[in-house]
Structures are given as structure tokens and as C-alpha cells.
Amino acid sequence: MTLRFSRLTFGFASIVAGLCAFRPALAQEAAAESAEYFEKHIRPVLVARCYSCHSGAKTKGGLALDTRAGWQKGGESGPAIVPGKPNESLLISAIQYESLEMPPKEKGGKLSDSEIAALTRWVKSGAFDPRVATERLGGMTAAEALSWWAFQPVPRLQGDASSAEIDTFIDAELAAHSLAPNPPADKRTLIRRATYDLTGLPPSPDEVDSFIADESPGAFAKVVDRLLDSPQYGVQWGRRWLDVVRYADTAGENTDRPLPHAWRYRNWVFDSFNRDLRYDEFVRLQLAGDVVAAKNDPKACADGIVATGYLAIARRFGHDIDKDMYLTYEDVIDNFGKTFLGLTTACARCHDHKYDPITARDYYSLYGVFDSSRFSFPGCEPKGRPRDLAPLLPASEVEALMKPWRERVSKLEAEKKRRSATVTPRPRLKEMAAAARRLLGEAKIGEGESAALTDLAGEPLASIPIRKGEVLQLSVSPNGNHGADTTLVELIVKENRAGGSRWSVAELIPEFLKANPQTINDEGVWCYLEVTDGPEFLLTRRESNGGDGRIRSWSIGGEPSVFVNDSDRKVNVWTELEPRSFFVHPGPNRPVAISWVCPRDGEFNISGRVADAHPAKLDGVSYRLELIASAEYGAALTRTGRTLSAPLPDPGPEPRIPVAYAVVEAEPRDARVQERGDHEKLGEVVPRRWLSVFGGDRVPARAGSGRKELAEWVIRNPLASRVMVNRIWQWHFGQGLVRTPNDFGSRGERPTYPALLDWLAARFQRSGFSVKAMHRLIMNSSAYRRSSVRTESQIAIDPENRLLARFSRRRLTAEEIRDGLLLAAGALDLTPGEAHPFPDPSTWTFSQHAPFNAVYNDTKRSAYQMVQRQRRHPFLALFDGADPNASTPLRQTTTVPTQALYFLNDPFFHAQAGGLAASLLTSHDDDARIARVYRTLFQRYPTSVERERAARFLRDYPAPQADALGALCRVLLAGNEFLYID
Amino acid sequence: MNLFVNGNRRSFLRSAVAGSIVFPAIVRQALADDSDPLAPREPHFPAKAKRVIFLYMTGGVSHVDTFDPKPALARDHGKEIKADHPEIKDRPGYERIFLKRPQWEFARHGECGTEVSSLFPHVARCVDDIALIRSMHTSHSNHYNATLGIHTGSFAFARPSIGSWVSYGLGTMNRNLPSFVVIAPKQTYAGTQVYANDFLPGAHQGTLVAPGPNPVVDIKPRVPANLQRLELEALRRQDEAHFASRDFDPMLAARIRSFETAFGMQMAVPEAFDLGSESDATLRSYGLERGRTDGFGWQCLAARRLVERGVRFVELIDSGSSDNWDAHGDMLTHIPLAKNVDRPIAALLQDLKRRGLLDDTLVVWTTEFGRTPFNNTADAKGREHHPWAFSSWLAGAGVKPGIVHGATDEHGLRADEKPVHVHDFHATILHLMGFDHERLTYRHGGRDYRLTDVAGRVVKEVLA
Fold it and tell me: Which pTM does this prediction carry?
């Protein structure tokens, strides 16, 4: 704390050095030309009486009086002061009401005589003005910045905190406004309020009962503790954080690509709230988790990287993301400033901030920090594949996973090499075949026609002598080289002797995929080949064709192929395939052959036919039947085929290394100012450093990007605590003590309870930045537990409930509505969501003409729904969900008829009401059902009037019982009591 | 929010609630304040235009082939030129560029004699009602950015759509219909952002209507009318009791009323989109077969019916992010796209005029950018994206009819004479609606935002 304090003071000191460096007072009355005189007599008058019109952004008549340069330059009427010459100084004549009349009447009128005398004396003595060092910092002068309420140190507090202290602050103010605080809410209202608040879900009837039964003074505190221990707490409060950091599951550039790994950051946020991760650490990790996480703890290391997803999820822009990174950095700087500091830093992109003490140089000093980091790249239209995703395992583990796999791959490669060295090379086989080739028959087969296997004269091949090892080859090629023609083949070879063997391709069908080459039936060897330029085995083995297991094939790639219909039925694919039939499918210019290696010398009868099986208005196929009369060839072919088709060692799939969409360090580089925000007009280089208003400390040399330092500067800044406790307060009460939670600058609102805000910030720090401690402190106050009924005097005196005499009623958020509906139907899955079912990145073809677009429906909590940037999720858009493109510090609540249409007609709503009704049917009668549904939805029993009305509704509703119950459930779920929290 | 300031009034409400018969009136009374985002509001100054039909042609319509005749471009066909153009910078194959002649003939039309090409024969007959701007230009040459720009005034970041701004400024005239309706067969570039309210209250978001038998989501009752009435009756009773025990919170009353409105919408919306009552002659004029529920003719006729019923802003998008005017490959693809919209647009203008609606309805026709008068070969069939110049037009309320404003250079390359940037175009539309574009602002994140960012100049010459 001391350190924090002194650094802050130091920060201010550096910018206001000039004005603080008083010379020691040597005389009783300081000389008029002294700094002390100026500080004592001049500055206070200027600040109190002139600054409101002549300082900062307001320079009436063009005159600024908050710097020496200001009056030297003067306004529209020329220099305001001529040092040494009061009579010639416009300022003096104006305050004497001789020329202009300043300050004017509406600003408090003429200065006092002593003030006029002091100013006159000062001008006469030379108008010593130390305010040279007080360059303006954007929209404020140094003096204004120095005294800006939100920049003041957070007070230090000792001892333990008590919720009663909160009430002390509030009750005093209420009394001062003659406002009576509301009495405490009844217990069922309170537990409903607290349960929704902390978990986003309603309490169960049992939880309500046990709270009501617990009459101990600490009953509510116990409920709060129980809720804080629920894993659903992190989902609710984490989602609130995701609103602020504009979380989305797509990149937002022109194709709105999915971010398949962003969910890890989302879940890390939820988990951090559940673990009550210290807020300072929460900030540190999001800005610099990759740098600061303990390197010796792999889990912490991975978490640190995942946490930088905060930066990585920044919106990407344009067609080629890399070209528009300056816009992404603007988004980063904008969100960084708003989220952690409550400052609109991005306003300083084109020029110094108009209202707050942030300069364009400040903006580009932060720019340099982020530009010295490497952001995961989601891919974009011209650069399709993601890159720079951060591995979540230490390099050693990545290596440990990858090394065995790489070794297996190299084994595989070595084996392939070995094989190709041992087999007969294709050109050699071609030569051997060419030397021994004898054409037995050939035919050109027209479109859709069929031809029998005959000799060249068209006679049957009744007796062909073939020796052992010689090869019969039937090749099929498409006519006109059209290719891709499915061709039916029947080929039967019979040995012409008593008891001779018979070989047929039909016999190959049942065990078609067993091998290529395949030996069946008495040593005949069959080979499936592509024969464009010598024989090449078809070695790609497919058990199905596009999922159709009846079709099995051997091929090279997609085609050419040999395939079979291995079923008893016709298969209708691109053409109709007869049952149990054998086909070849040549490719363009790539004939396919079936070869049969003869097992022994003899005479053989060759028969069969070849038929174009795919009449596609092309021009049919041709076959050639050849005998390759070389035993050496048959042996070489068989050996080659067996070698190549022997199973190869399988290296298995490449190990999947878990990765995060994250940010890591890159080469540090300072940024250049982009003149007027034009990224093509580069100005001076600005060093990477902290905001000048807070001291402007530089990133030390060799320190890396500076994100780590930036995180520390943020954490030590009083804004970090003030802004966060204000958010916590706001999420409990519906509005912050500062109602502009992202803007603690001069355009923001002042706190309603400044002292309470400071006290909370101090308590937050003292608790070790424990968010859960803040919940306990706040929720156990009387202010939190008040009823929400507005009284007349409250409406009159404090209609917006800024002073908190009551609790503000609120509508459920989009997520709470959907979760509540699913829960009522018994359909809500409370287990954490993980990755979305995005298509695999290898299949992405997204373009600006066909961007990614999907809505995934499941029954997980709504915080896990996939949120797109370019296309709003229809449900979330309807019920005021967070903006996925810009920080949403506070949800709006709009009431529009299209929402009512949802409660009337939406199928999802009807389904949940139906689910609820079905669950009620287990109760034995309508009375019990009515009681149960009121308890489930409203945490109370129905009144007798309600009981009676509901029963009458069920009786009068002209539909079967289940439908009538469904209708009743719709009515109750559509009602305001379900939708609003008191 | 001053309903309960007076204690007597509150007591009155209490006693009135007791006799629950007057309850709906009380709900209405509770709402008699200005918290309703869609309550009709007066603009900054009186204006003729009360509503807008915004016709948006997706993909970039070639100006030199439609509304901007360039005889010199025909004359200089094939001539090499130099241009520091964003679409050809560092693009392989585009080291040299050549002028490419328009592919359609232009002719003078109407009394004003404005020239329009043969791609738009029907719209050509309406030129006497149109103020044509031939000097439009924009800030980006990507579809995404330029589409976002013409809709929101922002070329990178999501901002409220022009329709949302108009709804925010004027509220609605018919609570049974949304104030801002977008009729689009498909999503265009930049997705839902083109009609999103962004930071403006959600009531101002564009309601998407997809042409077809069920145009609005959840509009079709899922239970028979008599049962729905029973349910709504029960809901009302239940909510009114809740309201009475919750200090007559207007927030609750607003939701009670939203069901009344939704109930009405279930009839009003299908009625608005049911063209059954239109005469054969009307349907014919829009080129529409009876019973059809899609096509641009349907969109145009539905738009007329919507503005007739008080919808504030209707946007019609002719196609989606593909198969649109983006004629890189072949300019001839402009033919079916023009044919799709030409007759319906002309019919819409004439129909509005005949019904007197053109007196207080502003019709806007635009695209996101033009197309290059050049390509990398003179006989290239297509044209590239061209942010430097394009044509848009205005017609109807407050618009000076039968004029041409601004001009491009002799080849249609640059908006030379009286250039009108997208921001100026927006400023002019807002002016026609009665708004000073610099004063129609919304405070968000510490800044006052407006449709025209920090620019915009009203084009006075097109005002009647």
C-alpha cells in the first residue's frame, strides 16, 4: 500500500514538477515575482474565478488562463497580459470592468478589490507564472488531473470490515434527504433475489424452505456462502465479466470466422470467479499471463496463456486482418482502458482526449506495448488457416508427444523407401511386358453397351495355351479419354482338362479387400492395376464409398479404381450397380487392368464380358485382352505387388496439442504516432510507457513487450480497485455508485456515495482483492436486503433510486430467461460447456460472400452459447444480450412486443412449458400441481384466489389435461412474476 | 415518471384497482410518460417526410451502365489510364488498366430529360419524380466495410443503422407493427449489423422479414385463437394482480401492454403482408402473380403496405452476399438483377404517388459503391469495386423532383462535381426527416454519437 501510494505521488510529481517546486519562503510576505506569491494569491483566484471558462477544453474568446502560454498567446483580442504593464494588459482592464467585464455577472461578478490588487501587482512585477510545465494532458490541465476525484489514492483501512458500515454511509444520506429506507424484503423474495444474483438461477423449493425455517441471525449469510460455493456462481459472474470484455466466439472480420479455442478463455473466467482468484492476479493474467505465470507449474503456465485470451478475442477487421491490425489495437486499447481503468483511452487515437488527461502519445505508447505482442491469428479470406495459436503444454511436453510420432513417421518413410528399392521398378515391368505382349482380343463398346470377350475375329477364346507365370491382362479405357466411366467386368478363365480349375472375378467379390494382389482358388494370382505407363498397383483400400459399405474399392486416390458391389441388392449411386458385381472405373487417360497370373502350364478357355455400366451421354469404353507371355514378368509383378501391399507401419494420427487463442511476446518495438489516426501517416516514435498522467513510467529496456509492467501499473492504480468495486456494486444493485461504469473520467458521472466507493475500494484491497469478500460485505448489508416496493416519497425525492432507500426491481437477463425456462422444464444441463461444434478448420471456405453463420442449440447454460459478432444470436438480441462487438458494462432492458411474441408463439418456449407440464403430471391432482408449479416458478405457494383461478383455468381450457397444464405453465412462465426480480 | 408524485392520484389508482374492470386503463395511465422508446416524437424542425423506404442494391451497381451516361468512356474504350485505385494497388495482373465501355445504351426520359440506361426501362419513366445524385462516393472498397458504411455511417465498427436512428428520432406511428422493418431474402454483407440498433435502445432494431409465407418470427399463433384468448386473459389477470402489489411500476405495465401489442401484431403483421386484397391491376404493375410471397415485387408492395400502416422505416434488400450486383466476372449479370427490381421499383413509386403517400414518404435508392470504368484488359467482361463514384437517388417527400445533382468526370472515374459522400447522403436523408444530423445524437460510453460521425453536409440542392 505504501509503495502504491508513493508511486502514485511520484507520478503526479513528475508532471507537475514545476508547480510543486516552491522556493522556500524567506520573507514574511512573498515577493510578487515569486512562485509562492503566485501559488498563494494568483493561482487560487484563477482556478476559482477564471478556469470555468478559460481552461481545459473551454477557452471562451479563445483565451486560456491555465498556462503561461495561454495568456501570452491571448484570445481573440490579443495577448491578455503584458508583463510589467498592468495598464496595457487586457486581463487587468477586464477584471476592473473597464474594457470587458470579467468575470461576468452570471459567473459570480467582479473580483474583490484585494484580488484585483493582487493580480495587478503580479502583472506589474512581471507576471511570474510557473505553469510552463503544466502542458495540457489531453482534456485536463495538470492541476485538474492532479485533483481529479477518481485518481486520488484509495484510503488505507485497518481492522475487519462490517456490512453495517455500508449502511452507515447510506442511512446518513437517506436521512439527510428525508427518505425512509424500506424494510427488509421477505425471505422468499430475498432468497430469490440472492440466488438469481449470484447464480443466474432461481432457488429450488427446498432451498427456500430451509432458509425460511432457519431463524438464526446468520441465516442469510449462510445462504450467501452456499451460493458462493456453487459452481454456477462463476458462470453468472463470469458472464458479467464477459459482457465487459465483449467476449465472442467469432473473429468479426469480413468472414466472421469461428474461434474454436476462445472457449478456454471463457471457461477460465468462470473458473477464476469460482476460485475467487485475487482480482489483481485476474488482471495481471489477462494482460500478461503468458509472461508472469510460474514457468515451473505447467497448469499455471497453461492458465496464464489462456487468460491472455482477453487480448486475443479483440475484434479483427477487414479482408486481410494483418493489414487492419491498427483497428484491432484500437479495440484492444479501448477495451483495456474501459475495463480496467474506467477511462476512454481510445478517444485519443486521432488527437489528444478532449475531456480527459490522455494524449495521443499515451495512446501510441500503449499501442507499442500491444504491437510488441503476437496475437493468435484466426484466419481470414485471403489467409485461410489460423496461425500463432499458443500451445498449452511446455515445449518439453509438446516434444515428448511429438517425438514418438515423428519417429513413427520416419520409420514409415524409411520402410517405404526400402520397399521401393526392393521391388521391380515400373519402367522395368513395362519393358518386360512390352517384350512379351500378345493381343488376344479387343473391342470398342458403345455408350451403355456390352461386349463379350472374344478373339480378334470375334470368335470365342476357347483354347489359349498359357504357361506358368505368364499373365493374362484385361484392360479397360474410356473412349475419347473421357474417363470416369463405370464398367462392369466378367472374366472367367477355365483350365481345359478334366478336373481343371476355374477362376472368375466374381469369386473375388466376397473377400475383395483382403489383398492386392490376391491369390484365391488354386494359386491363381489376381492383380488390380493402372496401366497407363507400365503396371501400377491400385493400393488405396476403401471399405465404403462415401459411407456406403456395400461398395468396396481399390484405387489410386479417387480414381482409377476397381470396385465391387458386395451386396445382394442393386445399389443406386451415380449409376445403378447390379448385386454382387465387379467393376472397373478408369480415370481420364488412365486405363485400369485386371491381371491374372497363371499358376501352371496348360490350355485355357477365356470368357466373360465388359459392359459400360454408366450411360452418361459420353462415348463408352474399350477393352484389350492381352497375354504377357513372360514367366519372369508374372513373378516380378506378383513379388512387386506383394511387397508394396504388405501392411505398412501405422504412425497413428498426429498428436493433438491443446492450444489457446492467446497472446504471447513478440519482438518489442515502439510505435509511431499515427497522425490524426491515419495509419498511413506516421509521425514520431513514442516509447512504450504508462499513461503520462500517472507518471509515464517507461517499459525498461529488455523487459519485453511491456504487458507485464502495464499490468502492474494498472493494479497499483487506484482506478483498478474503484472501477471493479463499482462493477460489483452495480451487478448487485442494478446501478453503480458511479453510473458510468466504463467512464470514471470527466464525462462520466460522479459517484453518488464517494466515501462509500472509497471505503469499498479500500476494503477490496485489504481483503486481498477478494471478489467473494465483496459479495459477502455487500449482500449482508441492510441496503441489499431491502424490499423493492417504491414509496411515494421515494418516487418524489429519488425516482431513480440513486440513494438506495429500496432495492431496484429488475428484469431477468436473456441468459437468465433461457436458463430459467430450461430449468423449469427439467431440461437444463448444468455441466460446463466446452468447445463449440464448429466445422473443422481444414474445411473452412468462408468468404465475405459466404461468411460463417450458425446457431447451435443445446441445453447447457446460456452463457455457453456460441456468440457471433456479425450475426447476433437471435435470442440474445431479442432480450438485450451483451454487444459482442463493444464493451457492455450494463445490460439495457427494453420491453418490445416482439419479446411478447416469443412468450406467445416461440417453439422453444412452448417446448419448455410442455416439459414443465409433463413434470407436474406426476402430482396426484390439480391442486397439488398448482401448488407445485407456483413453488417452482415463484418460490411461494399460490394464494387461495390464485389456486381457484388456476383450477378454473384448467377446468375451462377445452383441451386434454396435459395440454391444459401446458397452457397454464405458459401463462405462468410468461407472467411478470417469473420475469422480474424484486 | 411523475405519475405518483401526487398522493391523491395514487389513492385513486388504488381504489380503481379494486374494481378491476378498469384495469387496462390504469395500465395505460401508468405508461403515460415519456419512457416509451417508440412513442411518436417530433423532429427538430417540421418536415414533409414522415417515413422512409430505403432500397438497397447489394454488391455494387455499376454507375456507368445504369444512371451515369459516359459517352467519352465509350469513345475512349481500350485507352490505357493510370489510377491510384485501392482495388488495383499491388494486385497482380493489374499493373496496367484500360477504359472499358458501358454495355448499355442511355436515353433521355421524362420532361426533365434525365438519361438512364436500358437496364432500367421502368424506373426511367419515373425520372420526373427523382433527384438523381451522380456524384456519390464512399470511404472503402470492400463490400463489408462499404455496406456497413452506407447503413451506419461507420466503415469498420458496428454502429446503429440509419433505420434505427430514424426510429429513435421519430418513434412509431403504429404500435402493432415494428417501427423499422427490413425485408431481405438473404443476409447481405456485414450480416445483421446493417440493421442493428447497436447501442440505441433495442426497440429500434430492424425487424427482419424474410419473404415467404411466414415473414416474421413467432408471429403465427401456436394455439387456436379462442385458446390463446383464454391464456392471455389469465395472463392479464395474473400480471395485473402482480402490478397492483408492485407499486404500479411502469416497467411492469409496459410489459403487460407489450402483450396487447403482440396480440395485435399477430393479426396486423400477417394482414400487412397479405396481398390478397390488392387488385389484379396493382399486382400486375408490380409484376407479381397472385399468391406469390417472394420476389422484389412482393417486397415493394409489402413495403407500400407497411408505410401505409405507419411503419417508420422500411428497408428492402434485393439479394444477399453472393449472386448479386458484384459483377467481377461479367457485366451481363446486371441484366437479371436489374430486371428483378426495375418494374417493382417503378410500380412502387407510381403506387405511392397515386395514393398520395409519396407526399410524406421518402424513397431512397442506393448501393454500397460503383464499379470501375476500367479493367485490366479492355475486353474484360466484368468491372471491379469502385468507391470513388456511384449513383444513388431520392424521391418523394421534400425532394426536388426531376433533377440531377453532381457529376463524375468524363470517364465516370471520380465524383468531380459537387461530390456527395455517404455521410452527406445520410445528413440529407436525416434533414428530409426533420433532423439536424449534428443534433440527433446518443450518449454512449462517454461520447455523443451520431449517424454522420464527425462529418456530413446536407445537400441543399436536392431539397424541394
Answer: 0.74
